[in-house]
Amino acid sequence: MKSGLYKTSSGIYKNLQRILLCIVFSVLSFIFSRLTFQNTFYALPLCTLAALSISIFAPNAAWGAVTVSAAVITLILLEQTFNTDNSPVRPIAFIIYTGAVSIAAALITNRWYWHIRKQRDSYQEQNARERSLSQLSTALLTAASEEELHELTVRSIFSITGCSAVLFIRDKKGATNRAASYPKGLLLYPCDDAVNACVKNNCRTGFGTVYFGENPLVCFPVSANGKLLAVAGMLLNSDEPITTEYQMQTTELLLVRAGIVLDKITMLKREQQILMEKELEHMRSDFLRSISHDFRTPLTGIIGACSMLNGSNDIVLDIRSRQELVESINGEAEWLMRTVENLLSVTRVGSNGPKLNKSPEPIEEILSTVLDKAASRFPQAEFIVKQPDDFIMIPVDPVLIVQVLMNLIENAVKYSGNSSGIELSAADNDKYVIFSVRDHGHGMKQETLSTLFEPSACRSGDSTHGMGLGLSICKSIVAAHGGMIEGHNAESGGAVFMIHLPKENNNEQY
Questions:
Q1: Which pLDDT tens digit goes with each residue over 349-363?
Q2: Where are the beta strands (DSSP E) in 3-43?
Q3: Residue 406 three-state SS
Q4: Which of 141, 42, 135, 18 has its CA nearest to residue 94?
Q5: Rounded distance, CA 263 to CA 259, Å?
Q6: Could you tell me the domains of the chain?
Q7: What are the distances in angstroms from CA 9 to CA 59, 60, 142, 241?
Q8: Rounded to two decimals, what is the model's pTM?
């Protein structure tokens, strides 16, 4: 109300300024004509031109006519007051005639002027709308997620209308939930009725409509391909609740484009979910095949050894042979136990599992623990340990990292064909610590390097235990620490596996 009253008072003040300006021009024209030509007729062109020029900018034809009339009346009063000419013909009649023509001209020119200006303003508004919509559409298209699109939509509504905005999204059950608002933390009075009416009728509801017109919230449907996806709400200002039709139309056009982008993101998300499910199914199949192979090999050996020990093949075994079979059964059983531990480690670092038990650990202590375990498990192997001179601590889950290094050492001992010179080292590399395990065997086949860390069956080509599952688990553990693992063949022979672990806590993948 205060804003509307201020605009009205300001308009009247400007009109009075135009009238006063015309009166001043009339007085100046009269003085100029009397002093220069001693004749009032010469004041008419100047006064008429000034009055017409000023009346064009009047807000309507009526005010234009009043402006010209003020100039004419002023000139008539001056002529009657100061004219000393005794000629029988006085210019008053001519002034009145000229004033009437000027008023008619003012009415016509004022009307044409505002008609042209209205068209110009309309074109400018249309061009501005297209530019703003183009910019907003570009911003909407760059949204990488539904949440970002929701935030951009409400901010765009606010930039167009200057009103607080809120967005409600329909879930799979058909319920509408508040997804975003601008400004943040916007408090709304009960508006469920207006929102539900918008969902039900798929049209604008709330203030100024037939559906809950007393509600200060204006609800717009956000649809695409004939399907309602969301409801956008615009909270009108209580001091000035009326927005322009231009703002309403621009908001509706914006929401049409937002609906298209939202539908596209939803479809892409659905397609990604389908692809992810297919990929998970494929990985599950590979995982089960790998487990079946890795479990079948030691179980077959255990069953065969037990059969020979039971004498089912009528083979008489001496004490040494029996001892070797028992050691073989023990070794295969220990391998199965380690494999089960590896599988349990995967559940620890899974998205639904508990968090890593990270703690600052010295590099020397990690290497010492790995060396003790490796020497105990492979007493015939020779290990070379290299570590940095500086004291360095890194945040890791020590149990899992030791297990990763042990898996790499086990692969190095078994697949290198040479148990001498297994190198275990750690190096400082700026933000990362790099652990490496190297053997001096025959290296890995070239075709296996690209799929080295994918779950698969035996990679060595023999009947021994496969290493693919173990490397896949190692990758999962290292990735959970925010690091990276890589493997390649060394130029001088043998295989090298390197683990990059960050010095600072980092749960993102390297």
A1: 554 444 678 889 999
A2: none
A3: helix
A4: 42
A5: 6
A6: 2-134 (no CATH), 143-271 (3.30.450.40), 354-502 (3.30.565.10)
A7: 13, 16, 46, 20
A8: 0.46
